[in-house]
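It is worth pausing here to work through a concrete case rather than discussing structure prediction in the abstract. The textbook approach is simple: state the sequence, then state the predicted structure, then interpret. We follow exactly that order.
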Amino acid sequence: MSASFAFYLCEGFQLLDLAGPTAALTAANRLLGSEHYRIELVSQGGGVVPGDAGLGLMTRPAVSSTAETLVVVGGRVEPMLEADNIAGIRQASAGASSIASICTGAFLLAAAGYLDRKRATTHWQFAQRLQYLYPQVTVDADRIFINDGAIWTSAGMTAGIDLILARIEVDHGAELAKAVSRELVVYHRRPGGQSQYAAISQMEPQTDRIRKALTYVRDHISEPLPIERLAEAACLSIRQFARLFRKETGETPARAVERLRCEAARIRLRDNNESVGTVARLVGFADAERMRCAFLRSYGHPPQTQRRLDQPLMRGGDGYTCWPPIT
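Step two, the predicted structure:
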């Protein structure tokens, strides 16, 4: 049974937000040997819509869409919030069983009322603005994508690929999703609960010595990591290392080690059935209680709660996600 996707474009749409998801669906069709996923481009009035890269694409009028899944492509926010586009998205979604947005496309869904009392995400740089404009939406900037009922939202740029890979996995299983990710030469679908930016990348040290120390932490995460050991890895005295580390990362070495251990623990909790105590030991915490306190500082939740929040898509008894009607 085929599935149809309509990608809604507004003036100034981001080309990567469109190209990544459609490339994933096209690769799935090729691997399936049939046109399971039918793709169309729609806009409020149809015709050529100019994108941010100076490339215009031909679209059909939104009112003519009969797609089962409607995806709002991200781009410039201001054109999305025009009354014509709010009306257009409502027309295009009339027959859809699920709606999604890529990056800033969440602004149009919010303006049309589809994110009211829903959890949603967008590119982290726009999350605060989305929350300010639409306080009835629960915006979570620290997610790759979120599925709340019939509504899907993703973070920016390549996160749209993760969202579509998740849909392919729901429809056809993990093996096809993995095959598609290999064709696209991307990491196999990051779970929606994964942070938009890893702890080690948030620190962004300027010098190779501090980068080397952070890499050393990651590679020896289960071992004791006192400042003396990190300074030695960076080929600096303890005093020089502590001063330079704080200057380049904005935090102490001890806090950085804790954050990296929390991140490693979060991944293990999500991907395995190991107990909290076992995970704590494997990532270098002295015991489960210390890991619990560290999780509260980093995420605001204890490990058990964070594990539930990070679980993959919930599936029905037949192995497929149920797509409730849009309300």
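Step three, interpretation. The beta strands are 3-8, 37-43, 47-50, 56-61, 69-72, 98-101, 119-120, 138-139, 145-148, 151-154. The chain has 15 helices and ten strands.
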